[in-house]
Design brief:
By secondary structure, this protein is an alpha+beta fold. The protein has two helices and six strands, in the order αββαββββ. It is rod-shaped. The termini are far apart. InterPro entries: DUF1510.
Length: about 220
């Protein structure tokens, strides 16, 4: 009878031991599963964040490129505005210079003739009349002193003498034929024979050099 009880106790212990082993094994499996699933969730979350961050980078790059593009457009606009302003200033300066030149030419070609003295020429002299006007002024010069007349066509002197001939007669330089332009016996005196392009009249114009002021008409002879 005692052996039966002993065996029964051993059997119960063995069952409990086996049960504990099974429970411990199941607990171990559950713990491993929890750890595995948790690690997957953590790693998956990091991958998702990395993927999201990577996907956001093109947008950031695109935004940067758009900002650079906007800056380039603004720079081009600013440069274009500056160039336009410079061009407008240059145009204004050119217009002012042209206006000043036109006003100067108008002042030269609009001298009043009320003070002019007109004398009829002697018969057979080839001179129809002689005109002298005390209101005539020197036409101005860009040359420095001492001055030596240069009668070479195309020289500065030639240009300024031509201007004086036009000023005295009122014939525009572009409409003038110069038949002769040269010295009149003195280093500071010159004479030119001119006519308009239609050759409707012919004039002999005497001019003299005024120091630092340029050539000044002194007398006009209207020729036959």
């Amino acid at each position: 009878m005692s052996n039966y009880h002993v065996n029964s106790r051993f059997e119960k212990r063995d069952k409990r031991r086996k049960t504990n082993i099974v429970l411990n094994t199941l607990i171990g499996i559950v713990v491993v599963l929890i750890i595995f699933i948790g690690s997957q969730l953590i790693l998956g979350g990091n991958d998702a964040q990395k993927t999201a961050k990577y996907n956001e980078q093109p947008d950031i790059k695109l935004a940067n490129e758009e900002n650079k593009s906007d800056d380039a457009v603004d720079s081009d606009k600013q440069q274009s505005n500056e160039e336009q302003e410079i061009s407008e200033n240059e145009q204004e300066d050119s217009d002012e210079a042209n206006e000043s030149e036109v006003n100067n030419d108008e002042a030269l070609t609009s001298e009043p003739l009320e003070e002019a003295t007109i004398t009829e020429g002697e018969p057979g002299s080839g001179i129809v009349e002689t005109i002298e006007n005390p209101s005539w002024e020197p036409v101005g010069t860009s040359q420095s002193e001492p001055h030596a007349a240069d009668y070479t066509k195309g020289s500065q002197d030639w240009a300024e003498m031509t201007k004086a001939l036009s000023y005295a007669t009122g014939i525009p330089e572009s409409e003038m034929i110069i038949w002769f332009l040269g010295n009149n016996g003195s280093p500071n005196d010159a004479v030119g024979t001119i006519s308009p392009k239609d050759k409707s009249a012919k004039y002999k114009v005497y001019i003299t050099w005024v120091e630092n002021k340029g050539w000044k008409p002194t007398k006009i002879e209207k020729l036959n």
